[in-house]
Amino acid sequence: MIIIVKQDAKEERVQDLIHWIESQNLRTHVSNGDYTTIIGVIGDTTKLDDDLITGLDIVQGVKHVSEPYKSANRKFHPLDSVIEVGEQKLKVGHGNFALIAGPCSVESEEQIISVAKSVKAAGATMLRGGAFKPRTSPYDFQGLKADGIELLLEAKRETGLPIVTEIMNANHLPLFEDVDVIQVGARNMQNFELLKELGRTNKPILIKRGLANTIKELLMSAEYVMSGGNENIILCERGVRTFETATRNTLDLSAVPVLHELTHLPVIVDPSHATGVARYVKPMAMAAAACGADGLIIEVHNDPPHAKCDGAQSLRPEQFEDVAKAVRAVRAAALECNG
User: Fold this and answer.
1) What are the pLDDT digits (tens) for 104-114?
2) Which among 45, 60, 208, 251 could disulfide-bond with 186, CB atoms 3.0 to 4.6 Å apart, if both were Cys?
3) Which domains does the chain have, with CATH numbers?
4) CA distance linking residue 325 with residue 328, whole number of Å
């Protein structure tokens, strides 16, 4: 349910209404816009009498939301959410563009610090790197685990870049205390017990769309985290599995405007995992910027042919610098076209 409050309503009366709703064992989400205030009501709203609420002199109208995702719904929160990352409160969303770059997996101190310095010089705003790696084969490199996180933190100390890394198990949460953004990978997008645990944290959570999941299912995964109280969510489109074999996945760029229409949460794009081929990353990154993505997450390695994970899709630092310049040019042109 959405309750639209009149523009001239006194704050005291609005708070009285909110307290009364919450006394019915319902939760509220308040969105204050320039011209209107919206109270989103979450829970079994059949307890509330629409006519009673509509009859209040501070209420302009009442609407019901049919979609099962409530907190993530733009109807509940018409304005774009801006997610703040790290001690420096780096902003993501509503025109604040995140450029996240780094290796698929952390391999050594020399490697991660070298890459971190390179991507920062090229304009990256965050450093990505896998410490725990989900791999299709049990014989493939699974990451350095806790040691990998320590190396990421060392790279953060060297460069000041906030770090993004993937969690595999809720039991590992204590290791992520100093991680700035916790990534939920495509394979874990519907690990609901993990999502519930992340809902009890206050860290930004980056949720990747599963390779065979719908947009609605992605939003429901975000809802799992938000229902626990953590509203710091960044969504990521990373390609879906189709019949096409020329690329690793098929990058669904239409998901970006669709998600922006349905949700207030920031939406970023991963052209590396989507294509699986380094030479396709630049055009797809440019296309993502053109269609309004709030950021990119790109794999960069200082020696791709010898990478322990996903070398074929990883850019060299100089290639990433070229991509970053192209993306900035596309964003500038898009902003000019949009007025």
Assistant:
1) 999 999 999 99
2) 208
3) 2-63 (3.30.70.1140), 83-337 (3.20.20.70)
4) 5
